[in-house]
Amino acid sequence: MQIDKLKHQHADILARLAALRQLTHAGVAPNAPAIAAGIVAMSAVIKLHLAVEDQALYPALQRSHDADMAHMGQLYQDEMAQLAEAYDGFVRRWNTAQRLRADTEGFRADANDVLRRLHARMQRENREFYPRIEALA
Fold this sequence. Notes:
The chain is mainly alpha-helical.
Protein backbone atom coordinates (compact mmCIF):
# COMPACT_ATOMS: atom_id res chain seq x y z
CA MET A 1 0.00 0.00 0.00
CA GLN A 2 1.37 3.39 -0.93
CA ILE A 3 0.50 5.51 2.06
CA ASP A 4 2.99 8.15 0.88
CA LYS A 5 0.79 8.83 -2.15
CA LEU A 6 -2.27 9.24 0.07
CA LYS A 7 -0.34 11.54 2.43
CA HIS A 8 0.76 13.63 -0.54
CA GLN A 9 -2.86 13.96 -1.65
CA HIS A 10 -3.80 15.00 1.89
CA ALA A 11 -1.13 17.71 1.82
CA ASP A 12 -2.50 18.94 -1.51
CA ILE A 13 -6.09 19.00 -0.24
CA LEU A 14 -5.09 20.73 3.01
CA ALA A 15 -3.23 23.40 1.01
CA ARG A 16 -6.32 23.90 -1.14
CA LEU A 17 -8.48 24.22 1.97
CA ALA A 18 -6.11 26.86 3.34
CA ALA A 19 -6.28 28.78 0.05
CA LEU A 20 -10.10 28.68 0.11
CA ARG A 21 -10.05 29.88 3.71
CA GLN A 22 -7.84 32.83 2.77
CA LEU A 23 -10.06 33.78 -0.17
CA THR A 24 -13.17 33.52 1.98
CA HIS A 25 -11.68 35.68 4.73
CA ALA A 26 -10.73 38.26 2.08
CA GLY A 27 -14.36 38.40 0.96
CA VAL A 28 -16.66 35.85 -0.65
CA ALA A 29 -18.31 38.16 -3.18
CA PRO A 30 -15.17 39.74 -4.65
CA ASN A 31 -13.38 36.38 -4.70
CA ALA A 32 -16.35 34.31 -5.84
CA PRO A 33 -14.82 33.23 -9.19
CA ALA A 34 -11.59 32.07 -7.52
CA ILE A 35 -13.47 30.35 -4.69
CA ALA A 36 -15.74 28.49 -7.13
CA ALA A 37 -12.75 27.45 -9.25
CA GLY A 38 -10.92 26.31 -6.11
CA ILE A 39 -13.89 24.22 -4.99
CA VAL A 40 -14.15 22.53 -8.40
CA ALA A 41 -10.40 21.87 -8.58
CA MET A 42 -10.27 20.51 -5.04
CA SER A 43 -13.23 18.29 -5.80
CA ALA A 44 -11.27 16.54 -8.54
CA VAL A 45 -8.38 15.85 -6.14
CA ILE A 46 -10.74 14.59 -3.45
CA LYS A 47 -12.54 12.28 -5.88
CA LEU A 48 -9.21 10.78 -6.94
CA HIS A 49 -8.16 10.37 -3.32
CA LEU A 50 -11.42 8.67 -2.37
CA ALA A 51 -11.14 6.33 -5.35
CA VAL A 52 -7.66 5.25 -4.27
CA GLU A 53 -8.90 4.62 -0.75
CA ASP A 54 -12.02 2.75 -1.90
CA GLN A 55 -10.32 0.67 -4.60
CA ALA A 56 -6.96 -0.03 -2.95
CA LEU A 57 -6.60 0.93 0.71
CA TYR A 58 -9.80 -0.37 2.25
CA PRO A 59 -9.84 -3.65 0.27
CA ALA A 60 -6.18 -4.25 1.25
CA LEU A 61 -7.07 -3.75 4.90
CA GLN A 62 -10.00 -6.14 4.59
CA ARG A 63 -7.65 -8.77 3.13
CA SER A 64 -5.06 -8.26 5.85
CA HIS A 65 -4.64 -10.73 8.66
CA ASP A 66 -5.01 -7.99 11.24
CA ALA A 67 -8.63 -8.02 12.40
CA ASP A 68 -8.24 -4.74 14.29
CA MET A 69 -6.97 -2.95 11.18
CA ALA A 70 -9.70 -4.48 9.04
CA HIS A 71 -12.28 -3.23 11.55
CA MET A 72 -10.65 0.19 11.77
CA GLY A 73 -10.60 0.42 7.98
CA GLN A 74 -14.30 -0.41 7.82
CA LEU A 75 -15.11 2.27 10.39
CA TYR A 76 -13.07 4.87 8.51
CA GLN A 77 -14.68 3.89 5.21
CA ASP A 78 -18.20 4.07 6.62
CA GLU A 79 -17.52 7.45 8.22
CA MET A 80 -15.97 8.78 5.01
CA ALA A 81 -18.99 7.74 2.97
CA GLN A 82 -21.16 10.13 5.02
CA LEU A 83 -18.63 12.95 4.79
CA ALA A 84 -18.16 12.39 1.05
CA GLU A 85 -21.92 12.73 0.57
CA ALA A 86 -21.93 16.00 2.53
CA TYR A 87 -18.95 17.28 0.55
CA ASP A 88 -20.57 16.35 -2.77
CA GLY A 89 -23.63 18.38 -1.80
CA PHE A 90 -21.38 21.28 -0.80
CA VAL A 91 -19.67 21.22 -4.21
CA ARG A 92 -23.00 21.13 -6.06
CA ARG A 93 -24.29 24.10 -4.03
CA TRP A 94 -21.20 26.31 -4.32
CA ASN A 95 -19.50 25.51 -7.64
CA THR A 96 -20.33 28.81 -9.36
CA ALA A 97 -19.49 32.42 -8.59
CA GLN A 98 -23.15 33.36 -9.07
CA ARG A 99 -24.30 31.00 -6.30
CA LEU A 100 -21.56 32.22 -3.97
CA ARG A 101 -22.48 35.88 -4.53
CA ALA A 102 -26.18 35.13 -4.08
CA ASP A 103 -25.71 33.71 -0.56
CA THR A 104 -22.34 34.57 0.94
CA GLU A 105 -23.46 33.84 4.51
CA GLY A 106 -24.98 30.51 3.49
CA PHE A 107 -21.69 29.60 1.85
CA ARG A 108 -19.71 30.60 4.94
CA ALA A 109 -21.93 28.51 7.20
CA ASP A 110 -21.79 25.51 4.88
CA ALA A 111 -18.02 25.81 4.45
CA ASN A 112 -17.51 26.11 8.21
CA ASP A 113 -19.40 22.86 8.66
CA VAL A 114 -18.37 20.66 5.74
CA LEU A 115 -14.82 21.87 5.13
CA ARG A 116 -14.03 21.85 8.85
CA ARG A 117 -15.20 18.23 9.09
CA LEU A 118 -13.12 17.33 6.03
CA HIS A 119 -10.05 19.01 7.53
CA ALA A 120 -10.52 17.27 10.88
CA ARG A 121 -10.97 13.90 9.20
CA MET A 122 -7.75 14.20 7.19
CA GLN A 123 -5.82 15.32 10.26
CA ARG A 124 -7.11 12.29 12.17
CA GLU A 125 -6.10 9.97 9.32
CA ASN A 126 -2.62 11.53 9.28
CA ARG A 127 -2.26 11.20 13.06
CA GLU A 128 -3.95 7.87 13.79
CA PHE A 129 -4.89 5.82 10.74
CA TYR A 130 -1.96 6.05 8.33
CA PRO A 131 0.71 5.50 11.01
CA ARG A 132 -1.04 2.28 12.07
CA ILE A 133 -1.13 1.10 8.46
CA GLU A 134 2.56 1.95 8.03
CA ALA A 135 3.37 -0.03 11.18
CA LEU A 136 1.87 -3.14 9.54
CA ALA A 137 4.30 -3.00 6.63
